[in-house]
Write a structure and sequence with these properties.
TIM Barrel; Immunoglobulin-like; eight-stranded parallel barrel; alpha+beta; globular; 24 helices
Length: 952
């Protein structure tokens, strides 16, 4: 669910655009693309006679004050059973007597000022000491609630299986307020469990284990096939301390099953019979209707040579050597004519040696890219697993429309929820490969083919990163086919607000990693992917919505895996994610979360939005014409009003400071001279809201990027923000320039697939469900997909007045020669990065000692960035020698539309020369870069990054 990558506002106030007064200005600090999920696969079903709308939205009922004592009040869960002995409720001290009620048959009701239908009624005593520090740390959002003591004689294990409510009574004995309870606190205290879960296969039996402490009964329905109607066996599971289990014969392996869980569900106030998959499923039938009983260690589900794959993985000496290439499985081959039709859009496309796409990946690998980051590949909603159910659009018809037509998007959106495309940020089951990418969604095929994909990528020199989405799930409630966790233990896995409504700040159905068994499920899932699928890294979607404790445990768990014991090298597994701090978790609202600032010193990477926004201008939530460092800010205005000349020049200077901090790995303590001539740390360079730019403790904690799957592609955003009268060649050079900053920075570089080919999505800002048409990749390099129609109306209509004239103008569209030049430029930049370890320094101290920025302070050449990296010499005190080839490197980034000369006495009398890779490139412009040793003067062409090296 990554949604538009959260960012900060522009550096200056926004005024009306010169071209149009209608523009997109999102107001949500979250990804926006999943809001449509509730239209075609709602998380909550409202098809009962009960007034379920009372609690289906986390924004409906913000007040947590006691409601009147009515039947509707039981639909809220405003009290928290936080520990064995304490219930917390936001009621005033001394309001009256408080009672806890329980009904095993869910018969509680409010009538005549009383709570009726209960089996148990227990008086609760208000405490004088409030909530304990331990409770407040776990539930900081209720720190000020009143604490009520639960009698020690109560059988809590039995009570949690009931419908529960608490009520306060007036002095006249009438009910003043009543509400249901949230149970995660007591469930964690009484039922935290570390034993086996899921299906466990051994030589003689198959055992099932399900954690469901609130369930009253659990049955497993066993099926021989994915489609037969009647189960061949129905097994009653037995409970021990909240875990339900059963043992069956060995021949169950290869069968399918679902659980039938009888459990009280707070969303309906009833005991429901919920039919669900196993949360620990490792295999599924098509569309996740049933769980496949599969043994992942069986030779039957392993490709040839699978057990020895760790020995074939490309070397990785340090996380600082990583470079990431983000790719969607379907994008990779859905439109590649060199891939057989039956392989297109799936796992097996990666196993071909001679397809255009694989040849491109080989080229990237040879240039230096180390990891392919795959967008979600777990079982997600939004795409049917069985391909014959997909709907298609006539490609010839789409091709017949003009480049700025509304027709393409209308045809695409008409079937967008019934085609084969979705990014996949709508999880159903975390631990099973997505069936639509396999040649057969039933049986073990998806497991085998996924493993073949990993094996094939490793063998061409690329490690594999999975995009994991643990911050939310697709569906909730007792009814939805795609609801799993909320059927097994209702109200536990999902994060709820003070009224009991599910939090939706991540899009839908936020999960609660602060709860023990949610955290455990996340950790177990990571281990499964690492051990059984030999995954080399994990990118955490909306990582800031996960607790820091969970992320640190995840890192420790993965680091503990060994080749001898687990068949994988755990210390080589890298984790990173989106450290945005918003929603109910903002400012540690639910505990210390995994946000950018909180991850300092953890060794976990987070995306650096600061360098992105400074390079491109504004933010994804700002005005689309707001320019930045590479899009012409100050140097080539596009007519959008950003204030007077002095203000715009100041904005460029501040952007340059942000970029330089980013190029120094966004280190909190890196010292540089800012645009005012002051020596400051990275944490003393500020965003518009006074938040620090620098926040990392080491280079591996910073993932630098300028574009990703979210928001417009790099080429599209450049085409949108730059003046309309410049040439496509100039826009291409801006694309190269932005890429060069990321490629040559300290920290870990991240690239969106296709940026190296000038990829366009026809200026679609959110293509998660825009089909193959707007997401096409062309590895023949014939087209970059520019001008294939106005992007889908839902997320782009307000920008259509800006987009339409650009798409209609044929001068905007790159030719094949431009695309080939971009591919070569990217390849050259990566080769330069890997030509010297000085571009990949491993510690903060090394960066502080060796990296310097020149052209700083108030007497600067506008926009020009000059960075030097120094190495030591054998036998000379001071710096150690890291690079056997080059002793000194100077990188000069010139965003100006004209050539620039820069002289610095500190750079005189060196034996610097243009990097041989640039000297031997086909880019005749960069070859005009010069250095004069006597004056220390460099001349760099317009919109060019030049790298000068001093050979030993």
């Amino acid at each position: 669910m990554s949604a538009a990558l959260l960012s900060y506002a522009p550096l200056s106030p926004i005024s009306a655009p010169s071209e149009s007064t209608r523009f997109l200005l999102p107001t949500h600090h979250k990804r926006l693309r999943l809001s449509s999920l509730t239209r075609y696969r709602p998380g909550l079903k409202l098809g009962t006679s009960r007034p379920l709308t009372l609690r289906c939205s986390s924004t409906m009922h913000q007040s947590s004050t006691p409601s009147s004592c009515s039947q509707d009040s039981l639909f809220y869960s405003r009290a928290f059973w936080v520990s064995r002995s304490i219930i917390a409720w936001n009621v005033g001290a001394g309001e009256g007597e408080c009672y806890l009620y329980a009904s095993r048959n869910a018969a509680l009701c409010v009538a005549d000022g009383e709570i009726q239908g209960h089996d148990v009624k227990i008086k609760l005593e208000q405490t004088n000491y409030g909530l304990s520090q331990q409770v407040v740390e776990k539930f900081p959002h209720i720190r000020d609630y009143t604490a009520f003591e639960v009698p020690a004689t109560m059988n809590c294990q039995s009570l949690v299986k009931c419908q529960l409510a608490v009520a306060i009574f007036n002095s006249d004995g009438r009910c003043a307020s009543a509400t249901g309870l949230q149970l995660p606190g007591i469930l964690d205290e009484l039922f935290s469990y570390t034993g086996p879960l899921g299906a466990v296969c051994d030589t003689e039996a198959v055992s099932l284990y399900l954690w469901a402490p609130t369930a009253q009964a659990v049955r497993a329905l066993i099926y021989k096939s994915p489609s037969e109607t009647d189960p061949v066996e129905i097994v009653q599971l037995k409970e021990l301390k909240g875990v339900w289990s059963a043992k069956g014969p060995r021949h169950w392996e290869g069968c399918y099953y679902v659980y039938e869980v009888s459990v009280y569900h707070h969303s309906t106030l009833r005991i429901e019979k919920c039919v669900s998959n196993d949360p620990y499923a490792r295999g599924l039938s098509a569309d996740g209707k049933r769980t496949l009983l599969v043994n992942l260690v069986s030779d039957d589900v392993k490709p040839e040579g699978w057990d020895n794959l760790q020995d074939e993985k490309p070397d990785l000496l340090s996380f600082s050597d990583i470079s990431l290439y983000e790719l969607h499985v379907r994008d990779f081959s859905a439109n590649d004519p060199t891939v057989p039709h039956e392989f297109q859009g799936g796992y097996l496309a990666f196993t071909l040696q001679d397809s255009a796409g694989v040849k491109h990946l080989k080229r990237l690998s040879s240039a230096g890219i180390t990891h392919v980051h795959l967008l979600p590949t777990f079982q997600f909603a939004g795409v049917e697993d069985e391909k014959h159910k997909w709907k298609h659009v006539d490609i010839e018809k789409l091709n017949s429309f003009p480049p700025d037509s509304e027709e393409q998007q209308a045809l695409i959106t008409a079937i967008q929820n019934e085609d084969g495309y979705n990014w996949g940020y709508n999880p159903v089951i975390w631990g099973v490969p997505k069936g639509s990418y396999a040649s057969n969604a039933n049986g073990p095929c998806r497991i085998i083919e996924f493993r073949k994909m990993v094996q094939a990528l490793n063998r061409i020199g690329l490690r594999v990163v999975l995009d994991v989405v643990y911050n939310h799930i697709n569906a909730s409630g007792h009814f939805d086919d795609f609801s799993v966790l909320d059927k097994i233990v209702p109200g536990y896995y999902l994060r709820r607000n003070a009224d009991g409504g599910i939090e939706h700040s991540t899009c839908v159905n936020n999960t609660a990693s602060e709860h023990f068994m949610v955290e455990r499920l996340i950790l177990d899932d990571l281990k499964c992917w690492a051990v059984h699928f030999k995954i080399d890294g994990f990118r955490f979607d909306l990582m800031g919505h996960i607790m820091k404790r969970t992320m640190v445990k995840a890192k420790s768990l993965l680091n503990s895996l060994s080749k001898d014991k687990n068949g994988v090298d755990g210390p080589s597994i890298y984790i990173y994610g989106e450290g945005w701090d918003f929603g109910e978790v903002a400012n540690n609202g639910r505990g210390i979360n995994a946000s950018q600032f909180n991850l300092f010193g953890s060794g976990i990477g987070s995306f650096n939005d600061r360098i992105r926004d400074a390079l491109l201008g504004g933010s994804p939530f700002g005005h689309p014409l707001h320019q930045g460092f590479v899009t012409g800010l100050y140097l080539e205005p596009n007519g959008h009003d950003l204030g007077d000349k002095a203000n715009v020049e100041r904005m460029l200077a501040v952007s340059k400071d942000h970029i330089q901090v980013g190029m120094a790995a966004n280190l909190k303590d890196f010292v540089l001279t800012n645009c005012d001539g002051e020596e400051v740390k990275g944490s003393e360079v500020f965003l518009h809201d006074r938040k620090p730019v620098g926040y990392a403790s080491s280079p591996i904690e910073t993932v630098n990027y300028v574009s990703a799957h979210d928001n417009e592609t790099l080429f599209d955003i450049i085409s949108l923000k730059t003046p309309k009268d410049i040439s496509v060649e100039e826009r291409c050079r801006m694309n190269h320039l932005a890429t060069s900053v990321i490629a040559l920075s300290q920290g870990i570089p991240f690239f969106h697939s296709g940026d190296e080919m000038l990829r366009s999505k026809s200026i679609d800002r959110d293509s998660y469900n825009s089909g193959d048409w707007f997401n096409r990749l062309d590895f023949s390099y014939n087209s970059n997909n520019w001008g294939v129609g106005l992007p889908p109306k839902e997320k782009n209509e307000w920008n259509w007045p800006l987009i339409k004239p650009r798409l209609a103008d044929p001068s905007y569209k790159p030719q094949k020669s431009h695309i080939l030049a971009a591919v070569e430029n990217f390849s050259n930049l990566m080769q330069i990065r890997y030509s010297s370890p000085l571009f990949r320094l491993r510690t903060a101290n090394s960066i502080q000692e060796r990296v310097r920025f020149h052209n700083t302070g108030p007497s600067w050449i506008p926009g020009l960035i000059v960075m030097s990296i120094e190495d030591g010499h054998p036998g000379v005190p001071g710096l150690s020698q890291l690079d056997p080839i080059y002793s000194y490197i100077v990188v000069i980034i010139n965003p100006d539309p004209t050539d620039v000369s820069f002289a610095n006495p500190a750079l005189r009398a060196r034996s610097l020369q243009l990097h041989p890779i640039q000297m031997n490139s086909t880019d005749d412009v960069v070859k005009n870069s010069t250095y004069d040793a006597s004056s220390g003067c460099f001349n760099v062409p317009a919109r060019t990054t030049s790298v000068f090296v001093e050979p030993r």
